[in-house]
Structures are given as structure tokens and as C-alpha cells.
Amino acid sequence: MISQKEREKFQETLDLMGVTQSLKRRGVKGLPPFPYRIIKIEPEKMRYFNLSEGIYYVTWLKG
Fold first, then answer.
1. By C-alpha distance, which of 35, 40, 49 is closest to 13?
2. Which of 4, 13, 25, 53 is most buried, by the most CB atoms less than 10 A from its CB?
């Protein structure tokens, strides 16, 4: 059985990814039963470059 804590965490993840809003727009109540596996990736280092916004070679380090 799936605990209530796991269900809440799964629902928070769906909200974060925007799945819940997409389902509401389509008129679907929920996802079909399936053993979903969602992986959260948190990079240690990220480089960002966007000339149109005037951002040149910015590097973020987690920590």
C-alpha cells in the first residue's frame, strides 16, 4: 500500500511539473493507475547564457 505521505509528495510533484493544471484544462480528473517513477534532478553547477537579456556566461554553484 502507498502511504498518505507518499501520495502527498506525488501530488506536489505533479503540481510542480504542471501536470495537474494540464489535466484540469483537458477535463480529466486524474492519472490512470500506473507505477509512475519520477526523478528529480538538481544540478550542482549550472551555466546560463542569454544575449537577448544581457546575461553573459553566468555560473551558479549549489551550496
1. 40
2. 13
**Cell 494540464 belongs to residue:** 22
State the cell numbers at 35: 507505477
d(CA 19, CA 41): 17
Cα torsion angle, 30, 34, 17, 50, sign: negative
Catalogue the E-assigned strands of 1-63.
45-50, 55-61
* AA identity, residue 6: E
Model-level pTM greater than 0.85?
no
For residue 13, what are the contacts with CB-CB under 8 A and spacing of at least 6? 38, 40
Other CB atoms within 10 A of residue 60 CB: 11
Residue 1 has pLDDT above 80, yes or no: no
β-bridge partners, 61: 45
